[in-house]
Amino acid sequence: MSQPSLDWPAAAQAGPAVSGGKGWQLGLLAGFGLPVPPGFVIQAVPVAGRHRGEPLPAAQLKALADELARRDWADRPLTVRSSAASEDSAAASFAGIYRSHLNVLGLDAIVAAVQDVLDSAGDSAALAYRERMGLGGTSNAMAVVVMPLLPAVASGVAFTIDPITGREDQIVIQANWGFGEALVAGQIEGDEYRLQRDFPQQDWSLVAQRRGAKTRRSVAAADGGTELVETPPELATRSVLTPSHATTLGKLVQDVATALDYTQPYYDVEWVWDGRSFWIVQARPITARSRQSYPALANQPMLWSRGNSRDVAPDPFPALDWSFSGPLIKQMLTRTATLAGYPLLPGLQRTALHQGRLYFETAVLQWEAFDAFDVAPKSYNRLIGGHQPDISVPPGAFGQRLVRAWRGTRFLLKIIGPRLRARSTLARAHQQAQQQLALPVPASLKESAELLRVQIARMRGAEDLMLLQASGSALAVLLNLLDHYFPNEGSTVAAALLSGGEPSITAAQSYELMQLAVCAAADAPALAWLTSTQRVGQHWDSQLPENSSFRLAFKGFLHRYGHRAVYESYLHQPRWQEQPDYLFDTVLSLIGCDAKALAERQRNVRDAARIRIRQRLPVWHRWLVRWLVKLATSERNVREAARSALIAHSGVVRRLVLNLAEQLSSVRIFANADLAFHLTLEELLALAEGDLAGAAATERASWRRSQYEEFTRREVPEVMMQARGATSLKAAQLPASVADATGDEWRGQVVGAGHAQGAAFLATHPNVTLEMPVGAILVVPATDPSWTPAFLKAAAIVMETGGYLSHGAIVAREFGIPAVVNLPGILSALSSGDHLEVDASRGVVRRLQVPNGGL
């Protein structure tokens, strides 16, 4: 070995191929400021190049002796542990496969322990495990971790997700007196402590504990190694951990898991208590666990889909964004059923980040919609979009259907109050956000942290906003009714009936942008400034003439909509009031758009559908349809307005985060303020309040930024399937008609009515649409509100993902635009300029041959 040992920073830098899984992760945790004992790693040795029982080369022996002497560890009791390249990884844990030694005394014993650990990599059990886990082609090199033996008053293991039940909202801690090896091996019965995360405030508290017999404990033997001895009665009958210690330890192991992987923080963590402090001696991903789920789903796979999330969250989530948004999303997914009195199963995984992207577990969501409100899986999938299969559900007995109908009625009764209060609730939310933004930011880190805590609590307590954001019951009823009278056309007829009407806030801001374009065209100085290469968008108020009509109109627009942004669901995205250039470019792109033509299109689409309703439906159902359309339009507008209000409050969070980041940069804790977005909220607050060292915070943020950058480079499937109890995922097969990149016809889901032809305009970001000509067919991956101005110019919309309740679908219906969604792969199958026909009555997108024979 040219370099026989690595300290923790070097082990973290070298990676698992050199430091092994255990050594690498301990090195990372030490750099992250977590309580890891001092130690070093003997670099990995390829098993294939070493014979069992082979002594260490003389150079390695000398280097090991020198390292121990340098640390003054030659006569100190040590721990020698395995650290294979693939050990403690997400693919395989190798728990109990390789050998480790505690209480190793003297150089000869240390050398023998190192040799024994290296030999264990070639044991038949290790080779069989590698074969069973499909690791034959990966490195089986073995590194060795050497650490001092900690004076273990107590030890144990903690799981950041319950491996038995699969509850993700619980931490399970097992503890015993002495060393933890006998407990981990299942030789003794220790204490068990169960902590639960409060939802949505995210606080941990002890909710249950069970005292084990603890008849024996593992202690250091006088001549080296360990031995099992009888536990003194006064210890056996005592709890190992106090409630306070259990809570402290639970928060620590959760911090360990999140530090290593904020997207999948599910770890098995070994710990030691020395009477004063907790120490972390190992952390590995949990590779086998049960899944908390409903009995009806026991034999059905988990279905992870981006069909409803890609609209508003197309990119990976940085750590800060996810720690902020994750609890809010979960609250939105459960608020409706909770209000209706449906007994939700606690601790379910309804959301997850895979490669940093947001996925919904749609098997669970389909079941809850069916079991709570009798919404068929097919109908539910139509609403949310995606190509996840429909789950199997049992035929509903009369009594069950009656209960579900009562829940639906109960929900409608319960929502009356929030709906009646909606206008005042939304106005108050915007007013509060504006008041917070008008206040000066605190000058101290602790004051900034306290304000941030208050704002987070305010958002998580905004239950009415969450409920209004998730509303959509009238639309579901309308679709089911129209499906009965218009087989295979219910979606088309509903889309036409919902065209126009009272504008949603998203449509209203687009109409106002169109008016700003008219104003700019008539204001020569403003138009000259907008088109100037010297334009500085952030200085618009001082660069535009004081008497400019456009300046005054734009100031009003920013007051109403400046809290919004391109991909506004992410905290790290700048708001329009911070960087308004996107708005100015949008205004220029809308000059010449015909607002009257848009209104006429909406009217024609709606009137044609009303004629069909009069021709086919009986009188009593015509009245019902009219009422449902009115209610669905109101729900749409409230839904969009609630989103705007939540974004206004998140803008306050962003401002406080930026203030903290700037303060941290000014005292040189961060070299770059953007690093703050790669800490979790809890870490950022701990840093500001002095509970996390600056160097450790920088290490965590830098590590997360590299993870995030890797996520952005990866392509991810739309739907993934996961067997119950497994941790591995596989991409679901999409219908051939969806992903066919060689054909000229694609069939998707209808979300907007009408028929159009035009040249395809392909865009993967809202900025690209600024160059789109009027009358083009806009082909996009998905859309959030920042895409809406482009809809004003489009003849039709085609989206790779989305359902009837996706944002693009809602806006397309409101604008009366033909729209077909749920066509993954179509962006790569088309080229800008291809002549397309969009038949939204049948959900067909067709590439046409133009008369001259070209495309």
Overview of this structure, please?
- The structure is a single chain.
- With 855 residues, the protein is α+β, with helices and mostly antiparallel strands.
- 45% of the residues lie in helices and 16% in strands.
- It is built from 31 helices and 26 strands.
- The strands form 5 sheets. An 8-stranded mixed β-sheet has the order 19-26-25-21-22-23-24-20. It has a 6-stranded antiparallel β-sheet with strand order 9-8-7-6-12-13.
- Helix 16 crosses helix 25.
- The protein is globular.
Keywords:
26 strands; 31 helices; single chain; globular; 855 residues; 6-stranded antiparallel beta sheet; alpha+beta; 8-stranded mixed beta sheet
Gross geometry: globular
What oligomeric arrangement do these chains adopt?
single chain
Biggest sheet, in brief?
Answer: 8 strands, mixed
End-to-end distance: 64 Å
Into which percentage range does the β-strand content fall? Answer: 15-25%
Q: Give, in spatial order, the strands making up the sheet with the most strands.
A: 19-26-25-21-22-23-24-20
